Hints:
Residues 34-115 form the Chorismate mutase domain. It is built from 3 helices and 2 strands; from the N terminus they run E-E-H-H-H.
Amino acid sequence: MMTDVAESNGSLARPQAEGTGSDPGDPRTGTAEPLAAARIAETRRRIDEIDGQLIELWLERARLSQEVGATRMASGGTRLVLSREQEILERFRTALGADGTQVALLLLRAGRGPL
Ligand SMILES: O=C(O)C(=O)C[C@]1(C(=O)O)C=C[C@@H](O)C=C1
């Protein structure tokens, strides 16, 4: 499947076009070379495991964030704590660069909702 990807500059980029002159072989792996295809399939199994864990962690984090917000608001506190959000944004930016900031913004939104 060809899927557009949002680049950090806001433009949409197409992944490297299929059919750039080389033999795609099996379209599921993108190679005609059996050893490479086997290695790709094996590595993809690990990628799928990691993606599953990321999804679980994403959902768990969102639930915990909502719990913290509900506890604070039920006690008369604020919905948001912006200094805490800054800490989180900085942590992700330090570890992952500008894309880390984007990830952290999405993580925060998944928990407390849009600003
Ligand atoms: O840590 C908190 O106080 C939370 O409410 C959780 C959280 C987060 O998702 O990390 C969400 C909203 C706040 O503005 C800050 C952080």
